[in-house]
Amino acid sequence: MFDLLIRNATLPDGRSGIDIGVRNGRIAAVEPGIAAEAGEVIDAAGQLVSPPFVDPHFHMDATLSLGLPRMNVSGTLLEGIALWGELRPTLTHEALVERAMRYCDLAVSKGLLAIRSHVDVSDPRLVTAEAMLDVRERVAPYIDLQLVAFPQDGYYRGPDAEAALTRALDMGVDIVGGIPHFERTMADGARSVEALCRIAAERGLMVDMHCDESDDPLSRHVESLAAETVRFGLQGRVTGSHLTSMHSMDNYYVSKLIPLMAEADLRVIPNPLINMMLQGRHDSYPKRRGLTRIPQLMEAGLTVGFGQDCVLDPWYSMGTGDLLDVAHMAMHATQMGSGADKRALFDAVTVNSAKIMGLDGYGLEVGCNADMVILQAKDPAEAIRLRPHRLKVIRRGKLLAEIAPEVSRLSLDGRPARVDPADYAPRHAS
Fold this sequence. Notes:
- The protein is α/β, with parallel strands linked by helices.
- Helices cover 33% and strands 21% of the residues.
- It has helices at 77-87, 93-109, 127-139, 161-171, 186-203, 221-231, 251-263, 272-278, 294-299, 323-334, 339-348, 351-357, 380-386, and strands at 2-9, 18-23, 26-32, 38-43, 48-50, 53-58, 112-120, 144-150, 175-178, 207-211, 238-242, 267-269, 303-304, 372-375, 390-395, 398-402, 408-409, 418-419.
């Protein structure tokens, strides 16, 4: 007897006609034709069943604040930082929680059940940290929320940032953050990397730094991050986010850098939507688009996950909370168009990002948490192409969200009466 039985699922690895049995919030069976009763039965009808989407890089304290105190007219990263600096003194616990909770509602509807959010700790009031810790507790029944202590104004450049970051970690923020390229000098940037990795090693924490979010090919703090990771024995616990300067670096230097990153077992989080929007602003044509070297990093065996980064905030006036939008942009920007490429991109918004966050019990194997999403698509490549409806969103075996399939009804002489976008999946894709 199962609590929940999902029949006729297609899994991301290509297996089809699979049943998934759930008992006590965990997956108890994954096999064809399970002959058992269940309290609830869902027919997946051959559609893709995936583990939930995972966003390893977000700014929940800023989300849904677009237009406050005014719009980012230039559309640049630096104006976004300046706008946030104007808004920050006016932030209240209540407003921060309300916006974050609204975003989490949207996230659940998109099958996004794990998020790592950077929390600005530059304001010594730490109202952002207090609010996000409140949100983390509120959403714990349905979203795994990790928090990064992020000194937005720089660990050394920002006044009182060192003490504020320490206080945020003492309050229960999970991860040590940084922004070395925003320090006053390259030397201060390297010094901040060393100091922050030391703090993480002493406290037994992970590290996730905004690193080299710049078009400057000489912004090379990821090299320091890799070296300090090895020095402090943090392999597998350190993430470099953005890394957009790698887009502009010469190939010889990158041929040295990527092996160093692999030696340190760095995790990598590009943010394709925001990177494509903010980088290359000083170029005319040819115009750089700033996305880091995703195919080469994957080929070197590094764990690459994709983040949404921003939704409707001072830096980005777009965003839907849908990680498949992120994968869709990455596919176009990287020209990763083969079947194998698309499966790798799907992994970047699911299993890779779960690995970066260190999520326990993630996946569709027996013994994993019964967290899953049924999509109106036939396979991962089609999911990226269509960005389809999340027909069912399930956590610990309980239904959190559902939507009717997208079906258009036609009135065309001699043509079918209905169109289902998922029916257009190619029969012989490679």
